[in-house]
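hiii, so i know i said id send this last week but things got crazy w the move. better late than never?? heres the sequnce for the chain we talked about at the cafe, plus the structure i predicted for it. fair warning i was half asleep when i ran it
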Amino acid sequence: MQAFDGLILKQIPFKESSKILHVYTAEGMKSVLVHGAKKFGSPYLSSSENLNLVKFQATGRDLLTLTDADLIEVYPRIKADLERFTYAQHLAELLHGFGEAEYDHAKFFAFTLKILAKFETEADYQVYAFIFELKFLFLLGVAPAFTACAACGKKDELTFRVRSGGLSCPDHLEGPAVTDAAFRWMRRLYQIDLKDPVVERPDEAATVEIRRVIDDWYAYHLNFRSKSRSVLSGLLGY
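okay and structure toks below
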């Protein structure tokens, strides 16, 4: 028997009435089979939805079988707002896409829950998505170079470029440059501690550019673009 807290990232139909849940935990990704989850009247009908934080009890090894589940958090404000929910789903797709990578899952699981709490309570939640995505790049080993040229370590005449790996000197330029305003905000958000409130926020122009730069970074360095991000571009206009 295993007992663990997990965030449901994805659900896959299994046979006629069951589901396989892909769950992110302090130990990494787990797959949980929930028999009869789609049946009307099932005790797990509501608890087995995406972006639910659940206390699971399950048996088995690679594919666990649920024996009991208790809801910890359902994030009602996130789920009541289409844009907010789609943004949270985008982060869930990121976690699902790279949940098998080797990094400190216990630390990042706790961090993920803090980010979702900000999504649930903050009116301007998009900045917390940026913080999540930028810090996740560090764990995945492809964080931008924010202090010196990514290629040679020089610290003079630098501009920030996605294809150059971050800051780049005149000898190692590749791809279009990012504006100074967007770069400064990205560096600040990358370094922020969630214990400290994010009082100032980037203006609209910087927000749009940061969103584009992060998208380009994940696409270029990790070959990743979420389905939810495509939906968001329609909702947000960028």
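btw Residues 36 and 42 are 7 Å apart (CA to CA). thought thatd interest u
miss u guys!!
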